[in-house]
Amino acid sequence: MRARILVLFIAVGVFSLYAVVIASADEPIFVKWLVADDPGDETIRDYWERSEKGELAAPELVDLGTMLFYRGFPDDAIRYFKQALDLDADLFEAWFRIGLVEHSRGDLDNARQAYERCLKQRPGHGWCNFYLGLLQEEMGRSTKAMQYYETAFEHAPELADPTYNPEVLSSKLALGAKLRDYDQRRFETGAPLRYLEPKEVRKVRRRYEPTPAAVPEEVTPAATSASESAAPQTQPPSTQSKPQRPPRSIPVRRAPTPSPTESGTSDGQSGSRSRMAPIASTSDEAHLVPRWIGLTRWAEVLV
User: For the whole prediction, is pTM greater than 0.70?
Assistant: First the structure.
């Protein structure tokens, strides 16, 4: 009886050990290297556990692969990029990142194929064009490299800026591609292509220009100037009683002559004050009143 019980315990132990081995074999290696309580590693673990349950969408699988690439697991990164493509074959960004991973570890042929798959779906992908140009330059294909660089800078000019894309400093051809693009734009802009019938072109263009919104007459500068030239300017109502006098022709911008008692000094001396308000906010009457008061005071002095 004891022998049977002992055999039973040994069998259970062997089975449990086998189950643990099988389970650990299915678990990716990167899981064993994840550090507990580390925010980045815990994020990877969360994404991985949800991926095992089939809860991640294609873009989330791309993000998981990206995290694993930065964590130092390029093979696992490519595996999740391909899983994303299984869910969404049009996800060109996954092909671009497969190319980057392959490029980073020196597999230029696989990287080139991945870049080309990305550009087949998105020809104007600036980063993919740049890195494919860099790859072609590393392989000694200068002509193709220049073509990809020019396309990259056409769709993403900021890639030529080392502060934005430091990798541009590792290329000997990228600067030449940027200068060629600059020369082409300068040539097109400065070309002496003038219209032979400019008036006709402007006439046709005006027919398609949007009509400006109607402006009330009281605030239209043209209408205001026309009304001022057509009719004499009316004086604003005044609360003070002023002596009636015939209209006098005095220039609007002429400064009033200060009286001796008001100025304290002559016009030519320092310290004289100008009693003339800004033209834009002064009416004709505001110029006439000070002259009228000044003449009255001179009359009193003479008497």
Answer: no
